[in-house]
């Protein structure tokens, strides 16, 4: 018999007949059952914390577009990293803001063993030996034009850039880096870095390749943080991946793995969940995402305006990256998340 709801017929079949008695809400009915069948969990072991370092002492510079994130002199950075280690965060990723007078067309200051990036590695290694240190060999914080490579006659020259990046990677390893993570997207840089590290006795230093770094609009606040926002001439589309392309991203990851990458990264994170899933399914290697500055800034800004619950959005966004296939996530939220997880 048809049942009535108002003047509308609901049909003859019951819900049990429609579903075959497979009621998927059964395991959602209570907190205990939801916890019991939860497929993915976020833990402190999933977190890598990016930090920004500057010259000087006892100085903390606010980054306007990234509330709660600061550029730190080494004395303060070391204290923050000590706290991160106590929270259980496994690794940090360091990024420098280089004084303008030390930047040039070729980013030559990256080859100075006493640049702020290398000094940060030494200071952190001495004070917090248990934490992993990840450094970037890209040239953009060191160039006067804001590009990731050497600029000649309006062109980012690939092979000369690769040679310099490989030399910089050796210096970074010599100064305490555990992982070199080249973000420049030059062809052949992973293989060149691997060869250079091995030739200089750094066989145990790993490479985390920014295998799929997209030409994204989400990097803006980061460029403010490292001081390249007003310097960049043109764009980076001749070396970053078109955000419309996924097959190309797979080819990039495949090439970097063939050249010796130990881990691959997708950058940005949340807008590229499909890429993360494809790479994890295709290669089954350690896969990471960088929840970039624009992603962070959007959550913080919307939260500050009362439009979303920022804490819940933070956790959800990171868990979604895990669900997509990430083994770990670079995120500016790392200390906040670690504290929340510890409180649970």
UniProtKB/TrEMBL annotation:
Residue numbers annotated as active site: 213, 267
InterPro entries, sorted: ALAD, ALAD_AS, Aldolase_TIM
Keywords: Heme biosynthesis, Lyase, Magnesium, Metal-binding, Porphyrin biosynthesis
Pfam families recorded: ALAD
Binding site for Mg(2+): 252
Signal sequence extent: none
PROSITE patterns for this protein: D_ALA_DEHYDRATASE
GO cellular component: cytosol
Reaction(s) this enzyme catalyzes, per UniProt: 2 5-aminolevulinate = porphobilinogen + 2 H2O + H(+)
Pathway: Porphyrin-containing compound metabolism; protoporphyrin-IX biosynthesis; coproporphyrinogen-III from 5-aminolevulinate: step 1/4
GO biological process: protoporphyrinogen IX biosynthetic process
EC number: 4.2.1.24
GO molecular-function terms, A-Z: porphobilinogen synthase activity; zinc ion binding
Subunit structure, as described in the record: Homooctamer.
Protein family (similarity comment): Belongs to the ALAD family.
NCBIfam families listed in its UniProt record: PRK09283.1
Protein's name in the database: Delta-aminolevulinic acid dehydratase
Gene: hemB
């Amino acid at each position: 018999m048809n049942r009535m709801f108002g003047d509308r017929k609901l049909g003859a079949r019951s819900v049990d007949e429609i579903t075959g008695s497979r009621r998927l809400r059964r395991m959602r009915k209570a907190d205990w059952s939801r916890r019991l069948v939860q497929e993915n969990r976020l833990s402190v072991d999933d977190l890598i914390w990016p930090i920004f370092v500057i010259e000087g002492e006892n100085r903390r510079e606010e980054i306007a577009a990234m509330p709660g994130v600061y550029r730190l002199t080494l004395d303060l950075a070391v204290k923050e990293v000590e706290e991160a280690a106590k929270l259980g965060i496994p690794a940090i990723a360091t990024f420098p803001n280089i004084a303008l007078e030390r930047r040039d067309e070729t980013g030559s200051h990256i080859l100075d063993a006493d640049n702020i990036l290398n000094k940060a590695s030494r200071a952190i290694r001495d004070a917090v030996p248990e934490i992993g240190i990840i450094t970037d060999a890209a040239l953009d914080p060191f160039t006067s034009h804001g590009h990731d490579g050497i600029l000649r006659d309006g062109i980012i020259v690939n092979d000369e850039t690769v040679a310099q990046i490989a030399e910089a990677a050796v210096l970074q390893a010599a100064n305490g880096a555990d992982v070199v993570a080249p973000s420049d997207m030059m062809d052949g840089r992973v293989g060149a870095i691997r060869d250079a590290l091995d030739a200089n006795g750094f066989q145990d230093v790993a490479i985390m390749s920014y295998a799929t770094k997209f030409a994204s609009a989400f990097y803006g606040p980061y460029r403010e943080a490292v001081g390249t926002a007003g310097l960049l001439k043109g764009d980076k589309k001749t070396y970053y991946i078109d955000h419309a392309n996924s097959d190309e991203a797979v080819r990039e990851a495949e090439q970097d793995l063939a050249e010796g990458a130990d881990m691959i990264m997708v950058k940005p994170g949340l807008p590229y969940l499909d890429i993360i899933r494809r790479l994890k399914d295709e290669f089954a290697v350690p896969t990471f995402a960088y929840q970039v500055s624009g992603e962070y800034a959007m959550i913080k800004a919307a939260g500050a305006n009362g439009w979303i619950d920022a804490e819940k959005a933070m956790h959800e966004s990171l868990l979604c990256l895990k669900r997509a296939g990430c083994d770990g996530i670079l995120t500016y939220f790392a200390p906040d998340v670690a504290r929340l997880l510890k409180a649970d």
